[in-house]
Design a protein that fits this description.
Helix content is 56%, strand content 14%. The protein is of the alpha+beta class and 494 residues long. The protein has 2 domains: 88-127 and 170-326 and 370-476, Outer membrane efflux proteins (OEP); 134-164 and 335-360, no CATH class. The strands form 2 sheets. A 5-stranded antiparallel beta sheet has the order 1-2-3-4-5. The chain has a 4-stranded antiparallel beta sheet with strand order 6-7-8-9, with no helix packed on it. Helix 5 runs antiparallel to helix 6 (169-235), helix 6 runs antiparallel to helix 11 and helix 9 (310-332) packs antiparallel against helix 10.
């Protein structure tokens, strides 16, 4: 994922931006943003790249300082290698990275992030506001009985009161709102990681289906050649009519398998294009390697990467939110003080005036906010327990995936190193025996069928390997946000 940094460089719609990607660091100047009133704006750089950033972070840069980077960090659409508006050449094979970039550029997650960040920005802004003062008026000693009949002894007081927050409540509210905003970034991080995993699974399935079609078509061509050869033998009275019928049936069955493989390929392509949000080309080809890595890392080394993945690292942000909530509840245990001051007019004796002032201090006789503090502290243990539970679930999923990839690798290795050479040698020997008249043509067909069954089994093992490999990558892929790794054996008790 690109790493982004930026700052205003003059007018509102012109900015400097630096983006660090796997292929290098791109520096942009005079970033131009669209003038639409939408909550997020499409920007075009001097290099022709399209990016997406939300407006709140830009216009509030001076106040919050983290808004612009935080927004552009993820709403960037991951910086494609070329302008998206240039179109996609479907005549060229689609790689996984290209398929992923198309999915990322068309996912509604970006718009969702813009809306959620706008919500968080609003809460952060509201959290930093001080309480408004109150202005009031009071009239006393009027419309009574006896000497208080009428307005002769009326007293009119005009005053202003102000609530003074104690315990740094405003700072605590801002901290809680800021920490909650960071959780949104982790939500997007997880969403992007999940999208990458799902696209890779669909891409791998499509690539396997594409290879299966090629394999089935190759076998169909051989079946047709066998049918022609069997017809020639039948004409020469060297094969029976039953053998010829069996050869024709085998060709029809293989033609059916080809059609079935093509249907599976169409379904696999449809599953991939479902991530492209409306882009549905009629035909396109996938390209990628199906090579298996024979040297797998140990399970323990893979397990050690779990703490840096978004699924677990996000709990550091959630813990920070809960800690900020604890501090806020503790601050609320310090009751606020209200001060007031004003002027009083006394109508009696020709009218006199006086100043009035006072203070209201709550008497914390029973409610010291102890219940909410206790609940917030328990919330910390809830976050830690959820993290431990999630860690256990991920470790279990990783173990299952590791066993799956190990099993698929062993099966593929056995097929490739043992059975495949034997089947190929058997086919060569059977053909030589057929030419010498020692073996019937049915023997050649049988040897050929065995060879292709082994190749199909190898393709199936490759598919299971890729599925497990994608699962392991999902479980161990490190987060792009800064991560503080904690010792899972240490629990916090408060």
């Amino acid at each position: 994922m690109p790493q982004v940094a930026g700052n205003p460089a003059g007018p509102l719609l012109r900015h400097r931006l630096s983006i660090e990607t796997e292929s290098g660091i791109f520096m942009y100047r005079d970033l131009k943003l669209s003038g639409s009133p939408s909550p997020f704006a499409l920007g075009e750089t001097n290099r022709g790249h399209r990016i997406c950033v939300t407006r709140p972070g830009i216009r509030r840069w001076k106040k919050y300082r983290t808004g612009w980077v935080g927004v552009a960090l993820f709403a960037l659409v991951h910086l494609t290698t070329g302008p998206l508006q240039a179109g996609i050449d479907w005549n060229q094979p689609i790689t996984f990275e290209r398929a992923y970039q198309i999915a990322l550029a068309h996912t509604p997650v970006v718009a969702l992030l813009a809306a959620e960040l706008e919500v968080a920005e609003g809460r952060l802004e509201q959290a930093g506001l001080k309480p408004n003062p109150s202005v009031g008026a009071e009239v006393e000693n009027v419309l009574g009985t006896g000497p208080y009949d009428g307005l002769d002894r009326a007293e009119v007081t005009l005053g202003i009161s102000q609530l003074i927050e104690r315990g740094q409540k405003r700072q605590r509210r801002e901290d809680l709102a800021a920490r909650s905003k960071e959780v949104l970034q982790w939500n997007f991080e997880e969403a992007v990681a999940r999208l990458r995993y799902e696209v890779r699974q669909a891409f791998s399935h499509g690539l396997i289906a594409q290879r299966n079609v090629a394999l089935q078509v190759e076998l169909l061509e051989l079946s047709r050649e066998s049918e022609v050869e069997m017809g020639r033998l039948a004409d020469a009275a060297r094969a029976s009519a039953i053998e010829l019928s069996q050869a024709r049936l085998a060709t029809r069955r293989q033609a059916y398998r080809v059609q079935s493989a093509k249907r599976e390929l169409r379904e696999a392509r449809a599953a991939l294009t479902a991530f492209w949000n409306g882009i549905n080309p009629a035909e396109f080809e996938l390209t990628g390697e199906l090579a298996l890595v024979s040297a797998l890392p140990s399970f323990e080394s893979l397990k050690g990467h779990l703490e840096t993945t978004p699924a677990l690292a996000r709990y550091q942000a959630e813990k920070a939110v809960q800690e900020a909530r604890v501090e806020l509840e503790r601050a609320r245990s310090h009751r606020d003080v209200e001060v007031f001051a004003g002027a009083r007019y006394l109508n009696e004796d020709g009218g006199n005036g006086a100043l009035t002032f006072g203070i209201d201090i709550p008497w914390q006789l029973r409610d010291r906010n102890q219940g909410n503090i206790r609940s917030a502290l328990a919330g910390l243990r809830v976050v830690e327990s959820r993290q431990a539970l999630r860690r256990q679930e991920l470790a279990g999923d990783l173990l299952i995936a590791y066993q799956g990839i190990t099993s698929a690798l062993e099966e593929r290795t056995s097929l490739e190193s043992d059975l495949l050479p034997s089947a190929e040698a058997t086919l060569v020997e059977t053909r030589e025996g057929y030419r010498s008249g020692l073996v019937s043509y049915l023997g050649v067909l049988g040897a050929r069928k065995t060879l292709f069954e082994i190749r199909i089994a190898m393709l199936d093992a490759t598919q299971r390997y890729l599925k497990a490999q994608n699962e392991i990558e999902r479980l161990t892929r490190p987060a792009t946000l800064p991560v503080t790794v904690s010792d899972p054996s240490i629990q916090t008790h408060r």
